[in-house]
Amino acid sequence: MSRMEAYLQLSPLQETERADEPPQSNPQGAGRESLEFRIGETYMAQAGVIALLLGLGFLVTYLYTVLPPLQSSLGAFLLAGGTFLCAMLSKRYYPNVNLPIFIGGQLLLFEAALRLSYFSPAPLVDRQFGLLAPACAVAFQAVCAVRRKSQFLAIIALLCGYATGLMADEVHLTLCALALTTALAAYFRLKHDWDTAIVIALIAVYLTHLEWLLGNPLLGHEIRMRPEGPLGIPYLCAYALLFAGANLFRSKALALEMSNILLSLFNAGGFCLMGLLMVVTYRQNELALFSLLASLFLLGIAVAYWLLRKSFFSASFYALGGFFAMSMAIFAQLQGAQRFILLAWQSLLVIATAIWFRSKIITVGNLIIFLGIYLFYSQVEKPDAWVNLNFALAAILSARLLNWTKGQVDFKTEFLRNTYLASTFCLFPYGLYLAIPAKFVSLSWVCASIFYFAMSFLLVNRKYRWMGILNFLLVLGRVFLVELASLDLVYRVVSFMGLGLVLLLVSMAYARRPRRAEDLRA
Questions:
Q1: Which one of 121, 344, 354, 384 has the fewest beta carbons within 10 angstroms of its own beta carbon?
Q2: How many CB atoms are located within 10 Å of the residue 320 CB?
Q3: Domain segments of the chain: what residues?
Q4: How far apart are CA 36 and CA 30, in angstroms?
């Protein structure tokens, strides 16, 4: 056997445990001991490091109060360098506290660089060049984040970058710093797939821009809208493009990641809200123009998402933002009933886009907005026949458009179509009531019922027959409750004879029509 093993170059078998030997169990209390050592060895050490770093931060502040500017700055940089040295030594001998020490060193370095021009009674560097040192500190933080492959360090670098922009407190310096930091966040997203960093950067940049727009109260200024606020509109577009590109140029396989969805939702929402605030504050007379441009901007991003990535979530959010801006443009440009008529017809464009994107989000959002606009109109405007008739016609065409393309989308549209048809059923008679003299209202409603039955015959759709039947009930109610007591005798004769004749003809059509299986079902 030894010769065979040597010939086959087999290693000797390890001795296995005997089958009858009982397995060894962990000593009693090993779990408690492990938790105890984890707390004592790791968590307490990290808490101690954080306390020491806070003490160093207060020490740096103290140096600037008792020493001349040059000596205090040198002391701050030496403390930061000593912290980095401790981080290097702890990486080999005590790795549990390496990351907190390294982060503390970065923050101390950023504070020292910032105090060269800011928060110092006698700054060493003029404020015109004051951003160079903190910008270099942020660049160093970004390099360290990439080398260590640490998303947490990347988040710190981004937050420090936005803070640097606020410290500048000047229009283009501040906004350029925010845009460059956003570009760095997009780089982290595309190159290293750091999802949390890009979402935090998105929230931070819009909040930072808002803080700057309100006059930078964090620096002790009075809260007021800056007179130079319109200069921030191009930068706002730059933020939106950078965040959109951070998703757009990634792999298609990552389209359904939650970070992608949140990034698109917050980006579209933040751009719309910030843009609306700035335009209403500074360019209210040009609200229609800016809203139209914002609509084209967001719709262009939505189309790019759909064509390049087939990402219906991101495309839907940007499209909804674009249509919201388009609604604002219509509302700002037109007056009275005209604006509501055009808003009603805009819903058809939204439905067509939803079908193209195969997006249930857009279809449901459009239905809610459609009904909301009509309710808003009913509260702020006097009843208008043409508005109601246009809403009714837009609703029935929306239902038909969804029905024609129901095989092309991968979600059910039955409830949406029924809601649009119900809206038509309510708005069409009301519009006729407002448009036609009172003595001919019932006849117009009879014509509406005939229209519904004709639609049912042409489209082979039972829903329109039910709409015709229910509309006849409205006619009967009006004839017996209103016209029987208010109309002249001649108009009563015309109303009752016309209604009776139409009802008999419809009944005869039902009797001659062969019953089908789908009609016999409930």
A1: 121
A2: 25
A3: 334-435, 440-514
A4: 10
